[in-house]
From TrEMBL:
This is DoxX-like family protein. It holds the Pfam family DoxX_3. InterPro entries: DoxX-like. Keywords: Membrane, Transmembrane, Transmembrane helix. The chain crosses the membrane at residues 7-26, 46-66, 73-91, 103-120. It comes from the Bacteria. The lineage of its organism: Bacteria, Pseudomonadati, Pseudomonadota, Gammaproteobacteria, Lysobacterales.
Length: 121
């Protein structure tokens, strides 16, 4: 893969991580809270902590991918994405069937991260 292609792929993944963080906070009292309430997490404080922690993790990974690309950062991103996908699958398995693909998008993201891992130093 050319350095230009690798950068383009990495910036696409960075965009997803940062956009997810922004969307989580933008929809803090909307879809983010609704998702957790649907999963049975109705304590507002706990839900707020979970949303903030998830958004914070998304921001950190997004910035790390943008500023310090390396095999370790790509592996961290992949592990976090797999963990978040597993948690979301337990909380609301119907997300796999959502027409806009909130969980199915993670399959090509995992593939992109794997390609970046293989090419990283």
């Amino acid at each position: 893969m050319s350095p230009h292609d690798e950068r383009l792929l990495r910036m696409g993944v960075v965009f997803v991580w940062l956009a997810t963080a922004v969307a989580s906070l933008w929809e803090f009292d909307g879809q983010s809270m609704e998702l957790l309430a649907k999963a049975g997490i109705t304590d507002h404080r706990l839900a707020a902590v979970l949303i903030a922690a998830g958004a914070g993790a998304d921001f950190l990974v997004g910035f790390a991918l943008a500023l310090w690309p390396s095999r370790r950062v790509y592996l961290t991103a992949l592990a976090l994405m797999l963990a978040m996908t597993a948690v979301a699958s337990v909380l609301d398995p119907s997300l796999w069937l959502h027409p806009l693909g909130p969980l199915t998008k993670n399959v090509p993201i995992a593939a992109a991260l794997w390609i970046l891992i293989r090419g990283a130093k």
